[in-house]
């Protein structure tokens, strides 16, 4: 092999069975993936994929190679983490993965102060609902709402994230006999808890919160989304509902990188300062 980076492209295409999907995952072009896979096949002297109606399927040789690349890929990723972990500079990049709603409702101001305090750190933020793989350094630090943090990650639980029932002040003043239920497309929040009829369903916390602010009904939101929002009122007749937890995590191999350590400590402090509100306990 002339280029070990071709293994990343090969593995991405094998998993997705699609040149386009592999290109999107690797943040490159369709043409680059196609060209590099053809070049790899030429180097190895064997076809790696067969094109079928369900996509690109591994040949027998390709499957054997896929099995062997697992340990190679793990080794390359470990070297990358080791090098980053040994980097003792306070200047340089660090990548954070966080839910967009958590960024806006909890972390926007703390991260602004982090950037002002550490102007030589190049902070990259990715807002996504899926777990980034800290093994592969898709992110250096992740903040996630989960009940099952990944085993390979280290860090701490920074808060519980319970649910509570909210509506607008206007809706409460003119509350109907049968309530309208505004739901997030998430199992614990879909079914009405009150004498209510289903009126709205969305897969976005931001959208559900907006519909509630507009006086369309009552619904469940995580407390971090609604506590302190002057346009929303929490219904005392519905008790807090335990749900998931908020975790701040990294990989043990890069924990002592000073930029990672500074960011982790800053996030711990930010969540500690807001924990009562996030957990629905603020007076």
From TrEMBL:
<dbReference type="InterPro" id="IPR036388">
    <property type="entry name" value="WH-like_DNA-bd_sf"/>
</dbReference>
<feature type="domain" description="HTH lysR-type">
    <location>
        <begin position="1"/>
        <end position="59"/>
    </location>
</feature>
<keyword id="KW-0238">DNA-binding</keyword>
<protein>
    <submittedName>
        <fullName>LysR family transcriptional regulator</fullName>
    </submittedName>
</protein>
<dbReference type="Pfam" id="PF00126">
    <property type="entry name" value="HTH_1"/>
</dbReference>
<dbReference type="InterPro" id="IPR058163">
    <property type="entry name" value="LysR-type_TF_proteobact-type"/>
</dbReference>
<dbReference type="InterPro" id="IPR005119">
    <property type="entry name" value="LysR_subst-bd"/>
</dbReference>
<keyword id="KW-0805">Transcription regulation</keyword>
<dbReference type="Pfam" id="PF03466">
    <property type="entry name" value="LysR_substrate"/>
</dbReference>
<keyword id="KW-0804">Transcription</keyword>
<dbReference type="InterPro" id="IPR036390">
    <property type="entry name" value="WH_DNA-bd_sf"/>
</dbReference>
<comment type="similarity">
    <text>Belongs to the LysR transcriptional regulatory family.</text>
</comment>
<dbReference type="InterPro" id="IPR000847">
    <property type="entry name" value="LysR_HTH_N"/>
</dbReference>
């Amino acid at each position: 092999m002339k280029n070990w980076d071709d293994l990343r492209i090969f593995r991405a295409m094998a998993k997705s069975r699609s040149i386009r999907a592999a290109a999107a995952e690797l943040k490159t072009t369709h043409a680059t993936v196609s060209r590099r896979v053809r070049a790899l096949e030429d180097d190895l002297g064997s076809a790696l994929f067969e094109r079928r109606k369900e996509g690109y399927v591994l040949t027998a040789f390709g499957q054997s190679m896929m099995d062997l690349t697992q340990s190679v890929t793990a080794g390359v990723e470990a070297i990358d983490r080791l090098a980053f972990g040994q980097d003792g500079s306070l200047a340089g990049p660090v990548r954070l993965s966080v839910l967009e709603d958590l960024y806006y409702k909890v972390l926007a101001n703390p991260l602004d102060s982090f950037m002002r305090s550490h102007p030589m750190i190049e902070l990259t933020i990715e807002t996504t609902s899926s777990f980034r793989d800290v093994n592969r350094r898709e992110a250096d630090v992740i903040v996630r709402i989960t009940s099952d943090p990944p085993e390979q990650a280290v860090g701490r639980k920074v808060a519980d994230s319970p649910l509570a029932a909210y509506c607008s002040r206007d809706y409460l003043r003119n509350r109907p006999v049968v309530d309208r239920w505004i739901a997030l497309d998430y199992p614990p929040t879909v079914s009405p808890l009150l004498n209510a009829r289903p009126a709205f369903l969305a897969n976005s916390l931001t959208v559900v919160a907006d519909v509630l602010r507009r006086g369309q009904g009552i619904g469940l939101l995580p407390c971090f989304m609604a506590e302190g929002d002057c346009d929303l009122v929490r219904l005392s007749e519905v008790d807090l509902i335990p749900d998931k937890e908020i975790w701040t995590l990294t990989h043990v191999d890069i924990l002592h990188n000073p930029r990672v350590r500074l960011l982790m400590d800053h996030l711990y402090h930010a969540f500690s300062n807001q924990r009562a509100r996030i957990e629905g306990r603020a007076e």
